[in-house]
Amino acid sequence: FMAYIILLCAIIVFQVFKNQNDVLNVLVSAGNGLLLRSFPFAGWMAGVADGILRGEYLQAAFWLGISVLAFLAMLSAMSRSNREYYEDVLASTETAFNALSAAKEGSAAAPTPQKIRVGKSGLGKGEGASALFYKHMLERRRSRNFILSPSEIIFALVIIGFSFFMSKSGIIPVIAFSSYMMVFSVTMGRFNLELMKPYIYLIPEPPFKKLIFAISEMFPFALVEALIIFLPVGYILGLTAFETALCVIVRVSFGFLFTGGIIIVERIWGGSLSKMAGVLLYFLVDIIIVIPAIALAVFVALSGFNLFSETAAILIPLGVGNVLSALLILFLCRNMLQYAET
User: Fold this and answer.
1) What is the rounded distance in angstroms from the CA atom of residue 39 to the CA atom of residue 35?
2) CA-to-CA distance for 323 and 340, rounded, in angstroms?
3) CA nearest 236: which of 26, 16, 31, 22?
4) Closest alpha carbon to 268 in 339, 340, 337, 333
5) Cα–Cα distance, 283 to 267 (Å, whole number)
6) Cα(330)–Cα(258) distance, rounded to whole angstroms?
7) Cα R_g (the chain), whole angstroms
8) Contact 318, 297 (CB under 8 A)
9) Is 133 in contact with 140 (CB distance < 8 Å)?
10) Is the CB of residue 17 less than 8 Å from the CB of residue 161?
11) Alpha carbons 123 and 136: distance in angstroms, whole number
C-alpha cells in the first residue's frame, strides 16, 4: 500500500518536473487521471462523483460496481477468516486501555506486537553509554518506520510542494518553512522512554556522555530526511551542489537545536507539566533558542561578508549558530542523567 502511494507521488512529481510552467493543470490532470481513480475506495468513489457531475452515468456505474464488488470480497474474506470474535474484542480493549493510560501519564503507548519473529538477538556493538545508541538503532530497525514515518513523508512532500510555489523567492523562505514544519515533526526518538526507566541512570558513565549517546539516534535519520527533502528542492530552485549541501546541514542543525529545546523542557520541568502546557512551553523555548542563530545570520548578511554567495552568507552562520546553541544547551543540561527524578 505504501509502495503504491510512493509510486503515485513519484509519477506526479515527474510530470510536474516535465511541465514546470503549467503546474496547476498538471496537478488537476493527475487528480482526474487513472492512477488516482484506481486508488481503492477513495479513488473509486471520486470516479462515481465525477461521472455523476459530468453526466457520464455509465462511468459512474462502473466505479460504483467496482466498489460494491470490492466490499463484497472483503466481507467474504472476513467471514471465512475464522477469527475469534471475543479474542479480538479483548485485544482491542487492551490496546485502548494502554493508550488511555499512556495519555493520562503523558507518555507514548508502546505498541503490542501481534506476531513475534525470533531473529538476531543482542546488540552486537556498543559498550557503556554507546550501547544506548546501538539499542535505539536496533529498535528503530525492528519498527515499521525504519527510515521515515508516514508523518515525516507527508511533511517532506509538503515542503517540496511549497518550494514549487516559492521558486522565484529563493531558498530562504523554503528554509524558514522547513524549520517551522520541523517544530511539529522533530521528536526525541526513544530518549523520553529511557527517562521513564531506571537503567539509563545506572550506567556507570559520565552523565554528559550518556546524554550525547542517548540522542545520537536523531542524526542519521535527520540526515536522510534532509537529503530526501533538499535534493529535489535544490533541483527545483536551481541551487548549486554546495548550496544544496548547506541546506542539508542547516536542516540537520535545526533538528539538533530543537532536540536541545526538548532537553531544556525535560531538564527544568520534567514530567510535572500537563501535555498541553508542555507543548506550549516547547514552542516558546524553540522560539527563544533559535534567536541567536538568526541574529548571527542577519549580522553576517548585513555586514557584507563574502562567503561564497549571498545564499551561503546566510546559511553558513545559521547552521553554525544552531550547532553552537545546541552544544551550549547540552553542556548546561549535562547532569540531567546523574540522578533519577523521585
Assistant:
1) 7
2) 28
3) 16
4) 333
5) 16
6) 12
7) 24
8) yes
9) no
10) no
11) 10
Q: What residues have CB less than 8 Å from 109, skipping those under 6 apart? A: 98, 99, 101, 102, 103
In DSSP notation, 176-237 reads HHHHHHHHHH---TTHHHHHTSSHHHHSSS-HHHHHHHHHTTHHHHHHHHHHHHHHHHHHHH
DSSP 6-39: HHHHHHHHHHHHHTGGGHHHHHHHHHTSHHHHTS
Burial of 267 (0-12, 13-18, 19+ CB in 10 A): middle
Q: b/e for 116-146, b at 16 or more Cβ within 10 A?
A: eeeeeeeeeeeeebbebbbbbbbebeeeeee
Which residues contact residue 236 at a Cβ distance below 8 angstroms, ignoring those fewer than 6 apart? 160, 163, 164, 167
Question: To the nearest 10°, the Cα dihedral for 119, 125, 129, 135?
Answer: -20
Cell of 67: 466498489
Tens of pLDDT along the chain (342 residues) come to 566 666 667 766 666 666 666 666 766 666 666 667 777 777 778 788 877 877 788 888 888 888 888 888 887 877 776 666 556 666 777 777 776 666 555 555 555 555 555 555 666 676 777 888 888 777 777 766 556 777 778 888 888 888 887 777 888 888 988 888 888 776 656 777 777 777 788 888 888 888 888 888 888 888 888 998 889 888 888 888 898 999 999 999 998 898 888 888 878 776 666 666 667 788 888 888 999 999 998 888 888 777 777 888 888 999 999 999 999 998 888 887 776 665
How long is the chain?
342
The C-alpha cell of 165 is what? 510555489
Kindly state the cell numbers that stand for 310. Answer: 549571498
Distance CA 270, CA 284 (A): 16
Residue with cell 531506571: 198
